[in-house]
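Weekly sync, protein design subgroup
Attendees: M.S., D.O., the rotation student, P.L. (late)

Item 1: inverse folding check
M.S. brought a backbone from last month's batch and wanted to see whether the design step gives back something sensible before we order anything. D.O. pointed out we never logged the input encoding, so this time it goes straight into the notes. Structure tokens as presented (296 positions):
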């Protein structure tokens, strides 16, 4: 009941974090990878890694001035540049040979601007489609629950919580300068599934409590029903998410460099999603009931 009693504080805190996330994105913008903007990516590794300044100098001398060089793993570099031909790719690989340090090619991708634009559009459509699908699914699943909140409102609240779970991690990632690539988008889509799972667990407990109250002819305020549902599911939600958080921490700090973005997105999303399923989604339902009561 503590959470429902102070719901305005928790909802206000969530709104404040969402606002900060939006401001962060508005100021810093998204750092799209070449998968979205178009370009070429070369990943190489060395037995003895040369200094990054030496790599940048060698690329500049070879005519590759508009490039971005970043460390890759413990013994390699990632080079991002505009789309290049096969001949230019060979020149790029040659330029990566610094003294006696010969590079081993781990990956090379080249994507045109039109393909990158299509990928960006499809990613946005995927996020919208998943959100709409969740609204309809939750509304259908709770179709037999009409009092005191209509079934479709459960879906709307679930999506509002999902927006909260997406905007806050995106704001943090933007502040950290995380590059938006396909794994970033996969992480966001995964957050939608993970977060709505916890939210529906609480909603389902509310539905069961309402059903029990109706069968037993027990009259209690909706806020009490919601508070009991949160108390009954809170420990389960926290410990379930905690097991995932431990795995994601291990993956981020000990896993390969290629999965760091995905693990970081999922880590932030899991933490924020667990918070919203307990402190935001269900309290929002009680707000809708309060407004309905005032209007009637």
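Designed sequence read out in the meeting:
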């Amino acid at each position: 009941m503590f959470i429902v009693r102070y719901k305005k504080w928790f909802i206000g805190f969530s709104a404040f974090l969402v606002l900060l996330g939006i401001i962060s994105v508005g100021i810093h913008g998204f750092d799209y990878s070449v998968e979205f903007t178009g370009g070429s990516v070369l990943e190489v590794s060395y037995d003895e890694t040369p200094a990054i300044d030496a790599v940048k100098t060698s690329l500049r001398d070879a005519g590759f001035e508009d490039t971005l060089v970043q460390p890759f793993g413990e013994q390699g570099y990632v080079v991002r540049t505009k789309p290049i031909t096969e001949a230019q790719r060979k020149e790029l690989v040659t330029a990566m040979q610094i003294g006696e340090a010969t590079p081993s090619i781990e990956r090379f991708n080249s994507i045109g601007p039109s393909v990158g634009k299509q990928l960006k559009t499809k990613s946005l459509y995927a996020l919208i489609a998943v959100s709409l699908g969740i609204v309809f699914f939750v509304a259908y699943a709770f179709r037999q629950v009409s009092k005191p909140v209509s079934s479709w409102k459960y879906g709307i609240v679930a999506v509002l919580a999902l927006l909260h779970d997406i905007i806050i991690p995106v704001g943090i990632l933007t502040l950290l300068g995380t590059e938006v690539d396909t794994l970033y988008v996969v992480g966001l889509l995964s957050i939608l599934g993970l977060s709505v799972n916890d939210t529906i667990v609480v909603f389902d407990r509310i539905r069961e409590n309402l059903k029990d109250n109706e069968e037993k002819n027990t009259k209690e305020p909706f806020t009490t029903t919601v508070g009991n549902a949160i108390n009954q599911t809170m420990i389960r939600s926290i410990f379930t998410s905690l097991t995932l958080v431990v795995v994601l921490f291990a993956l981020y700090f000990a896993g390969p460099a290629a999965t760091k973005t995905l693990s970081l997105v999922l880590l932030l999303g899991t933490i924020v999603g667990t918070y919203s399923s307990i402190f935001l989604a269900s309290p929002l339902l009680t707000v809708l009931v309060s407004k309905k009561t005032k209007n009637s």
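Discussion: The chain has a mean pLDDT of 83. Residues 131 and 217 are 36 Å apart (CA to CA).
Action: P.L. to compare against the previous round before Friday.
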